[in-house]
Amino acid sequence: MAEESKFKLSKRDRLHVFWRSQFLQASWNFERMQNIGWAYAMIPALKKMYTSKEDRSLALKRHLEFFNTHPYLAAPVLGVTLTLEEQKASGQDIDNAAIQGVKIGMMGPLAGVGDPIFWGTIRPVLGAFAASLALSESWLGPIIFFLAWNIIRMAFLWYSQELGYVQGGNITQNLAGGLMQKLTQGASVLGMFILGVLVPRWTSMHFPLVMSRVDVPADEMVNFGAVAEAANEGVLSGDMLRGVVQEIQSGLSITPVEVTTLQNTLDELLPGIAPLMLTLACVWLLRRKVSPITIIAGLFVLGTLGYVVGLLG
Amino acid sequence: MDIISIVLVVFVAFLAGMEGILDQFQFHQPIVACTLIGLATGNPTQGLLLGGTLQLIALGWMNIGAAVAPDAALASVASAILVTYHGAGVSEGIALAIPLAIAGQVLTIFVRTLTVAIAHAADRKATEGSFRAVEFYHIGALMIQGLRIAIPAAIILAVSPQLVTNALNAIPGWLTGGLAVAGGMIVAVGYAMVINMMATPKLWLFFALGFALSAIGELNLIAMGIIGVVLALLYLQFAPEFNQGGGGGNTSGGDPLDDILNDY
């Protein structure tokens, strides 16, 4: 074979790979998972590197092997693989096993980093924030969610792919080691903190069940009767109304019977205790391998029963 | 409803179906999908409200490894059509979203099995060195994932509104009330799924702190976010696993408090 000059991918080629990497999971299958998607992303580069039918066939087969990681963390692996393929195309002796080894070696640790950062922290935090805007009928909710997510995602895909491309094999230590672990831990701290905030705020559980009814003594209640009488006789004065407001502010009851519901009792104990217990129970069930759908179905039954007997409302 | 709306709804459904597998642009997330369907059917506010509520429920639905989560795409698209086009209530939409999410999950598992055959077909074309054929199969599989949501959406659109209204009215009051109550509770499952993935004994501390602070209504989510980021940065600075040897030369000499802490 003729002496080949060292092969270099242009930025345009790498942008092409970046764009295609977004379709990594399109043909996700239970056998080799992201394999075709991976080959699909590599094709713009492979096309430039290999021109003969045999070379192309070998290259395709090499990249149709099993691959599965977090869809965004595939980007740095792509970057590293591009470098390796570049060297191989320039005539260096890099065999299939080496390329496959890099892919397999990186995908596991990186998936473990991507899941808590993207699915565990950024999407729930961003989603919850956007949902709170949407529930107050603000259009900013979906707009912020969509823009923020895609800016973060695309920036990550491009820069981590470039990092992988420039650093080559060294990146594995950097990513799986210090930097990524810090990022994962930091994201998890933020995520868990926000979840702690969200659980009591947005799980709606209300217990209208009446625990006690106590008649309020006449002298602890605002005397609305007198006000009504005065109003009917046309002698209602500003001072009288002011007096009523002051009485309310000083804590006099405005109803003749003081009703305590189960909800009031729970709120006195600790606000949000019921959603907390519910969430912890769900975590407990999930740890015992109960599927989320089973838990959801169970909650539907519980909620309906609770509503029918008047415990929940 | 005019033809343009129908085409738009089916198009959004198709996008959501593709995103249900790609998980990149997030067109399948309720807050995006329901809002878009609401815009297409001319009932945007209902779509927005449904999207916001469903988003909270679907927070924890994520595909990890080879495990397939409940499907947000079909749940958001189908229930958004029922609410914004057929006139169901938002709480009814939520209740219907759950069985729809399971149906969508079954459908995507079916397609993901079907694509095994596509992978083998791609292998054959790879032997011939045909880039074009491999690309064709890849995009073809994506189209099937899009149709997975677009076809059910078209069917739900085609059902006469009268039929939907009758069916919804036939649901007894105790059931709708009960489902609404349950809908408020199932948000907890999503939270639990995220917690289950991330929680380590140390991280529970931050969960507890967040829970305690959430009672202070004046602190809105942005304020909470700031507190959370500060906590995360402080944690990274002080946690021993990031300050001892390990990477080598990481132990900072500049921080006396740090050195004292490390001595213990």
From TrEMBL, chain A:
Subcellular location: Cell membrane
Residues annotated as transmembrane: 183-203, 269-286, 293-312
GO cellular component: plasma membrane
Keywords: Cell membrane, Membrane, Phosphotransferase system, Sugar transport, Transmembrane, Transmembrane helix, Transport
Xref: InterPro entries: GatZ_KbaZ_carbometab, PTS_IID_man
One example of a Gene Ontology biological process annotation: phosphoenolpyruvate-dependent sugar phosphotransferase system
The keyword Zinc-finger is annotated on this UniProt entry: no
Domain of life: Bacteria
The UniProt record lists the keyword Membrane: yes
Main location: membrane
Membrane topology note: Multi-pass membrane protein
Identification of the protein by name: PTS system, mannose-specific IID component
From TrEMBL, chain B:
UniProt organism field: Alkalibacterium thalassium
Compartments in which it is found: Cell membrane
Listed transmembrane segments: 30-52, 64-88, 94-115, 136-159, 171-191, 203-236
Record's GO cellular component terms: plasma membrane
InterPro entries, per the entry: GatZ_KbaZ_carbometab (IPR050303), PTS_IIC_man (IPR004700)
Topological relation to the membrane, as annotated: Multi-pass membrane protein
Matches recorded under PROSITE patterns: PTS_EIIC_TYPE_4
Signal peptide feature range: none
Domain of life of the source: Bacteria
Keywords on record: Cell membrane, Membrane, Phosphotransferase system, Sugar transport, Transmembrane, Transmembrane helix, Transport
Predominant localisation class: membrane
Keyword Nucleotidyltransferase in annotation: no
GO biological process terms on file: phosphoenolpyruvate-dependent sugar phosphotransferase system
Name this protein carries in UniProt: PTS system, mannose-specific IIC component
